[in-house]
Each structure stands twice: as C-alpha cells, then as structure tokens.
C-alpha cells in the first residue's frame, strides 16, 4: 500500500543486504512513520512481543524472517541447535496468532530437508520470502472474494454508501499487504462502490484509532472513528450494513479468536440481523483445534489499560495515566466468537460457512 505516495510492504529484506530486515515501527503510528531494522533474533522477539509489528499475518511473516536471521547468525557446527533455540524464542513471543507457529514450523521443515548448511540458509531465506509473498497474494484474493459481498449490498441499497464496521486493525498493517478485513473494502473502492467504514477505536492499544483510521485515510476511504461500545447502537439504528473483522486463530470448526470486543460485535450483529464476516488467509486456521475455548488468550500488562500514549500539541509523544494510582487492571487481549455467530469466512479460496464440513470442503488437504 502507499504511504505519502510511496509503495510499501510492512516487512522487507534490505536490498543487497538480506540479513537486515526492515519493519515499520507501528508503535509510532500515526504520528511518525519510522522504519526499524532487525538483525538479531532477540530484536525480532522484542519487535513481536512489544508490538512494533502486530496483526496475525505480519506476526507470521516477521517470525519467518526471524528464522532467516537465525540461519544467518547460526554457526555451521551447531546450526540446527541454534535454529531450534530461535524457533522456541520466537514461538513464545505472543500466544494467540496461529500464523506465528505456522511460519516457524514451515521454515524449520524446509531447512530440515536440506543437507548442507549453505542450502539450509538459502532455504530459510526463500521460505521466509515465500511466506511474505503468499500473505500478500492471499490477502489480495480475499479482497476479490469479499468485494462481491459489498457489491451485493450496494445493489440492494441502490448505490447508497455501504456502511461497514470493523474492529481492531485487520488491514495492510496487520499483514504484508492489503489486509484481510480491509482487502474487500479496497476491492470495492477500486470497483467504484460508494462505502463508509465505522472504525472501532479498540482499547487499550487503540489499533482502530491509530492504525485503521490512518490506513483508510491514506487510501482515501471515507471512515469514522467510534468508541468500542458504539457499534451495537449504530446497528440498532440501521447505520451498519455489514461487519468484517480479521482473526488471529480460527479452529477447523469455525470458532474465531480476534481482538477483545469482537464477540460483543458478533452478538450485536446477530441481534440486529446484520451479516458478520471474518476474513482470513489459510495460515490462520488451526487445523488441530475443534473448540475455540482451547485457543490461548493473551493477557497483557494492566499498564496498557491504565495508561494511554498520544501526542501533545507540539507533536511529541506523551504517555498519561487514566486511572488512580494502584488501580488493578486485567488486560484480556482476545476473545472467542463462536462459529454460530459467524455468517461466513472470507478466505483466499472463496467464502465459506463457518462449519467443519464447509471449511473441510474448501481446504480438503488440511482436514
Ligand atoms: O494485538 P494485535 O494488534 O496483534 O491484534 C490484532 C488483531 O486482533 C487483528 O484483528 C487480527 O490480528 C486479525 S487481522 C491479522
């Protein structure tokens, strides 16, 4: 996607120095566009854990490049031991997004099939690049399939703007390019369909306010920021036609883990008869899980709730306290939306019902 007219992905190897991996430090957005360079596994672990990068797809792509960095640094005589240590450290950086372990396992598998260390290094790099390229390509396809849903609603509304509500950031910044929930929006925009996006602010990290609203502005998409609790009201008064969110992990039965608050949006959508879609590339499915309640839910520091970071009038970054000193805060970062509340899953292969049989029909090789 474009930032101030220049085309970027969210992660890329440095030209002529592929052992250096560039990321956009998302903690600084939307106030500053800062590119950070990663050269060690511990930098990659910190970048994922401390959310310089975030969003399931990008977490996976970053872990893939983390394994490539590990391969660059590993001594020849202890290569696989070094790779296993890196896999463990990267795998523990965040618990909920399936893409993280999926990417690590994919690089490890390709590395293990090679015999010489130089071939193993080459395999780590080419697999990390393939994961990133595939992520972008799959999101683009999600956009092509999901666009048709928006087109259909637009037809029913006789061309009146389609109002779409989204939660957190399942946009370009959560992937390598395009995004999952945003890709159908970009597709519909390209097809000339009038639309408007309600952006949940997404406390406590404010990914909606800081990232999604900024991303949509960069793309010239009409959008309005709302508080996390406003969605139900807007649905009741007929201001939402469609909900599209992303997911960090979806079971083979269609239960969806996504940013905390997603479940409440799904309940409100069901009560108001509004379609609730989840957009995801296949790398986000957990083919081993039958029940969403088995998905590990990240619990982050309570300080992320009691403090908030933004800029003051001079533009410098400030963190201020919202709650009384000593306030206890519990920061559950994700929740589970049961499959029965999901109208459909928008994947790179098409749109499917959130049922085990329909998912298996679309992805027979995994089930
Ligand atoms: O804590 P984050 O910012 O990594 O959470 C991101 C989300 O919840 C997204 O909606 C999710 O990753 C799905 S889109 C990749």
TrEMBL record:
- Write out the catalytic residues in the record: 248 (proton donor)
Tell me which EC number(s) this protein carries.
5.3.1.23
Q: In which pathway does it act?
A: Amino-acid biosynthesis; L-methionine biosynthesis via salvage pathway; L-methionine from S-methyl-5-thio-alpha-D-ribose 1-phosphate: step 1/6
Specify which residues bind substrate according to the UniProt entry for this protein. 54-56, 94, 207, 258-259
Query: Where does the record place the site Transition state stabilizer?
Result: 168
What is the enzyme's class at the highest EC level? isomerase
Gene3D superfamilies named in the record = translation initiation factor eif-2b, domain 1, Translation initiation factor eif-2b, domain 2
What is this protein for, i.e. what is its function? Catalyzes the interconversion of methylthioribose-1-phosphate (MTR-1-P) into methylthioribulose-1-phosphate (MTRu-1-P).
Q: Which family does the UniProt entry place this protein in?
A: Belongs to the EIF-2B alpha/beta/delta subunits family. MtnA subfamily.
Its name, as the record gives it, is: Methylthioribose-1-phosphate isomerase
Source species of the chain: Desulfopila aestuarii DSM 18488
């Amino acid at each position: 996607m474009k930032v101030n007219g220049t085309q970027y992905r969210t992660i890329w190897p440095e030209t002529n120095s592929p052992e250096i991996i560039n990321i956009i430090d998302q903690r600084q957005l939307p106030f500053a566009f800062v590119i950070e360079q990663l050269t060690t596994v511990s930098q990659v672990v910190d970048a994922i854990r401390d959310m310089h990068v975030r969003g399931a797809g990008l977490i996976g792509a970053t872990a893939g490049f983390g394994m490539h960095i590990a391969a660059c640094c590993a001594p020849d005589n202890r290569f696989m031991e070094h790779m296993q240590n890196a896999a463990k450290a990267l795998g523990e950086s965040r618990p909920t997004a399936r893409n993280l372990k999926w990417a690590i396992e994919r690089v490890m598998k390709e590395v293990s099939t090679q015999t010489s260390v130089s071939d193993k290094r080459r395999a780590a790099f080419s697999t990390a690049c393939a994961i990133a390229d595939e992520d972008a390509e799959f999101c683009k396809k999600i956009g092509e399939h999901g666009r048709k849903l928006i087109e259909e609603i637009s037809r029913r509304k006789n061309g009146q703007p389609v109002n779409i509500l989204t939660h957190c950031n399942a946009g370009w910044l959560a992937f390598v390019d395009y995004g999952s929930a945003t890709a159908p929006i970009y597709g519909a925009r390209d097809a000339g369909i009038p639309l408007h996006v309600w952006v949940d602010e997404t406390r406590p990290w404010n990914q909606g306010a800081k990232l999604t609203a900024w991303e949509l502005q960069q793309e010239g998409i009409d959008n309005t920021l709302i508080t996390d609790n406003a969605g139900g009201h807007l649905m009741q008064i007929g201001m939402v036609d469609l909900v599209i969110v992303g997911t960090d992990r979806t079971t083979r039965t269609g239960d969806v883990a996504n940013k905390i608050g997603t479940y409440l949006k799904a309940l409100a959508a069901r009560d108001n008869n509004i379609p609730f879609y989840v957009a995801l590339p296949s790398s986000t499915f957990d083919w081993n899980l039958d029940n969403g309640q088995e998905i590990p839910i990240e619990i982050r520091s309570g300080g992320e709730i009691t403090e908030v970071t933004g800029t003051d009038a001079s533009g410098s970054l400030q963190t201020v306290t919202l709650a009384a000193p000593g306030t206890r805060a519990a920061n559950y970062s994700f929740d589970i939306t049961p499959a029965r509340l999901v109208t459909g899953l928008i994947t790179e292969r098409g749109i499917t019902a959130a049922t085990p049989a329909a998912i298996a029909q679309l992805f027979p090789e995994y089930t």
